[in-house]
Amino acid sequence: MTQPTVFKMRSSVPVCLLLLAVAIGSARANDNPCQDVRIPGFVCMNCTTLGYCIRDATGSWETMSMLGCQSDYNFYCSDEGTFGCTFQSQCQVPKRGPFSCQQAGLFPDPYDCRRYHECSDQSVDTPRLCSNGAGYSTLTGTCVLPRESEQCIKEQFTCSRSGQVGGWAPDNRYFYVCVNDTADSLYPLMMKCHEGFVFNSYSCVPDTRSMRIQAKESHTCMNNDRYPCPFRTSEMEYCKCVDGELEVMTCPAGFYIDPKIMTCVTDRIYQCSDFEILSCPNVSTKDEYCICIDRQLQIYSCPVGQYFNAETRKCQSESE
């Protein structure tokens, strides 16, 4: 079997591709998930093909086929964490489809719990992707859903005919209307009731009994991931998951927390190359390291149980 190959690409971490079979070329028009995803980067075209999303000069999205996987040996496509073909008990590539803004606001992606959509007043859709690998929760407005939660492993809508209406089970303020994509394909239009209203299977009604849906998902955080603190008092503070619980952390001197990427960053300009990995100044913990992006440093953490080796510039376990 071919050994894993590391590709140095514009990413904050090395991208590992297990090359079982490579086939580079343009995707067929009827096999173009990037026109729905609309975010540049790797994407699984299906269970056995890894693609890459690019945007051409006309603004159209195109999927480039990059890699084929040997599903006969339980190697399936992965576009999360490790990009390429990974050994899995079954294919975990989500179903995808079109999304069309109907109202201004934030809406969950009906196909992939990691994704959500920011819709403008002009019905312009800006797709978003949770960077921490978790699912997006409309209840908290943050990426906190465990990947094993029902919203991430089970489809939350049913479309059997055009015009069919249904409630969004994870949050009863949302509902959907099924419409035709093609003659034999349906997809849900995501909608939201006005403030103070909930969907009762047929229409939006006043929430007079204060029956706001309660969070069904577990609030256990994911180890080493960073989250916004509920009551942050400083631009240097953030919350980090330690043993399944959130703890308030403070960025080292000279760093502040960037709430968009939940990472400590510097304003100071450093003489370093893009995506160069190096030791962080003023950092006392052994599991953190810095990545240079645009000559500024961003702090990242090693996987649980590993520390950063400043000589090799890699994360490794204590036993190595």
UniProtKB/TrEMBL annotation:
Q: Which residues form the signal peptide?
A: 1-29
Q: Which domain of life is it from?
A: Eukaryota
* A single GO molecular function term of this UniProt record: chitin binding
Quote the protein name from its UniProt record.
Chitin-binding type-2 domain-containing protein
A GO CC annotation recorded here is: extracellular region
**Ranges where the Chitin-binding type-2 domain occurs:** 98-154
- One of its Pfam families is CBM_14
